[in-house]
Amino acid sequence: MTDAHKTAADTTLRTTGGAPPGDGVAAPEVPTPLLEPRDGIPPVVADQAALDEVVAAFAAGHGPVAVDAERASGYRYGQRAYLVQLRRAGAGTALIDPVGCPDLSGLGAALAGTEWVLHAATQDLPCLRDIGMVPDRLFDTELAGRLAGFARVGLGAMVETVLGYSLEKGHSAVDWSTRPLPEPWLRYAALDVELLVDLRDALEEELTRQGKLEWALEEFAAIAAAPPPAPRKDPWRRTSGMHRVRRRRQMAVVRELWTLRDSIAQRRDISPGKVLGDAAIIEAALALPGNTRALAALNGFGNRAGRRQLDQWQAAIDRARALPDSELPQPGQPVTGPPPPRAWADKDPAAAARLTVARAAVAAHAERLSMPQENLIAPDSVRRLCWEPPTEVSEETVSHALAALGARRWQVEQVAPVLTAALSATVD
């Protein structure tokens, strides 16, 4: 590490979200631009021989490993990784092309038992898992920042606030499937892991100072142990603007157009939005056009010159129009939890009163702890507890209910007394 980097890493962090400031020197008011990786931009690893060298180097390295991944969201179908960046003491920085090296399970095995440092881990773990990289344990610098009370927890903001460096973020939304990747993009990618371990160390120190490190470790362990998310049921229901679609026949049009668009996008490996926008799907569902001429007059279709394209969209609409009523989608998905809180006052006034008091109590405790309410306890857990509280309200029964809803041990310890008091004040 250069002297400049070491100075930044050794600086005591300055929090911005209400957490008590550290006792040492705060990060500089004017951050220093970080323009180049300390070891330069490494060559992109795109073949097995080069990958084998990286695996050996990182297996021989020491300490935590910084990991990041770049996707091509908005450009390509799905969320696959198009670049993986790593940095570890004793190994340096590596930039790996998962297109040329689609199986990184050997690298994942070489890092077994090593702590991975990621920023917003849940965003990158799915695409890393797809190429064989799954951490045994991790440290999430974004989540650590939330628990420590930072108001801004993006990587650039955290590096600036904690370490006194500014990162250039101009390439975060580029098409990472581009080949070859331009040098400025590679520089940006290498810098994303340049100070990630330094940031981790400073945040660990701050969490320890605030008495929150064990809480953070519980959260990190839960992320690492979480199974892959199950596929969404009826993903077409998440089409933007779906709230405008009321009739079942119209819902069938959304389903048919969404399904066709998805198959085209997958086949062409482009973002579904580049095939047909959500707004166009909703417009077609509301209008129920009977022919391609009427369809072409709708927003989102008229600029898609080409009879063949209009024909395929109209065919999907016609399929929905021809469905018997028994095959039309139902208005909503089955509800397994409590109704939306806005309906509670009419359905169960007592539950609505409990929720109001409980939310206020949780908010006050989260403010005392200098962390977002949603990190203190999942809002859905509070709603479910207030909708169906234990028959006998006590700290023991509330603790048991929270644990059954998936709350971590530290969350139960912090929230159970607060919610017990709130429910005791309002429960019948």
From TrEMBL:
TM annotation in the entry: none
UniProt-listed InterPro entries: 3'-5'_exonuclease_dom, Exo_C, HRDC-like_sf, HRDC_dom, HRDC_dom_sf, RNase_D-like, RNaseH-like_sf, RNaseH_sf
Protein name: Ribonuclease D
HRDC domain boundaries: 247-327
Ranges where the record places region Disordered: 1-27, 323-342
